[in-house]
Amino acid sequence: MTISKTKSILSLSLFAVLFVFLFTGCKKDDDDDKDIVLAEETYDLKTKDALGVSGTVTFYKRSSSTTIEITLSGITSGNHPAHIHVNSAIESGGIALTLNPVNAQGISVTSVSKLDDNTSVTYEQLIAFNGYINVHQSANNLGVIIAQGDIGGNKLTGASENYSLTEFNTSGVSGQVRFEKRKNNNTLVSISLNGTLSGETHPAQILLGDVTTVGGGQVVLDLNNINGSTGKSITNVYVLKNGTPIKYDDWVVYDGYLNVYESIINSTTIISQGNIGEL
């Protein structure tokens, strides 16, 4: 009788230990599942107003949220506010999401399931988001951006086309225009010229036809003005002057040309031009 009771007690004890082991083991697995990275996407953060600061931001998909991790080099001290803004960096826009500040080690980690306006947001929506990230020098100096980068749909795919811009009217101004494809099929248009005058501002337009069009073609797009001190202009393009949407794939077969003008005052005097699209 005593032996039978002892066996029963031992059996119950073993069952209890097994139950606890299985229960806690399953619970640990459930907790681990929440930390599993299901997908990830990384974007570059480049130097902006402070030299030597750059890095990356990575979006990690988890079961019920997205972890956003910023890693910067060149940070020496202090906390640096970070935000996701709407639009591309060249356009600028309001804050959509406030991230945890980047610390003195150059790290920021934020778990996200909602935007600042309390709108729910998923990993899939974030990696398609029309936005960019700014990292600021400090809470008291938000005007100085130490690192910046386009994210989501604004990420560059690597596809691009370059077109030459030749001098006109013996201006001595020449260079190129580069069309780069974004993930959302919008276009980053970058003009780079040599021979421009420091302190001058040069308007630039895209027109229908080619450089030999008699009387000039119809203006379809006003680009951002070229800074004469740097010879550069950058424009994010997704719609023409008349409101017609246009994608990168449209530009590479476009029947058009680009004019650069002497100044805002002399906005009809061409100093450089070149065909684009299907030459």
SSE-based structural type: alpha+beta
Using the coordinates shown, work out and report the CATH topology of the largest domain.
Immunoglobulin-like
Gap between N and C termini: 101 Å
Number of strands: 16
Largest β-sheet summary: 8 strands, antiparallel
Q: Which oligomeric form is depicted? A: single chain
CATH level-1 class of the largest domain? Mainly Beta
Task: Write out key terms for the chains shown.
Immunoglobulin-like; 279 residues; single chain; 8-stranded antiparallel β-sheet; 48% strand; disordered N terminus; elongated
Give a short overview:
By secondary structure, this protein is α+β, with helices and mostly antiparallel strands. It is built from three helices and 16 strands.
What does this molecule look like?
By secondary structure, the chain is α+β, with helices and mostly antiparallel strands. The protein is built from three helices and 16 strands. It has helices at residues 2-35, 123-126, 248-251; strands at residues 39-47, 54-61, 66-73, 80-86, 95-102, 107-112, 130-138, 141-152, 156-167, 174-182, 187-194, 201-208, 219-227, 232-237, 255-261, 270-277. Strands 5-4-7-8-1-2-3-6 form an eight-stranded antiparallel sheet. An eight-stranded antiparallel sheet has the order 13-12-15-16-9-10-11-14. The N and C termini lie far apart (101 Å). Residues 1-33 have low confidence and may be disordered.
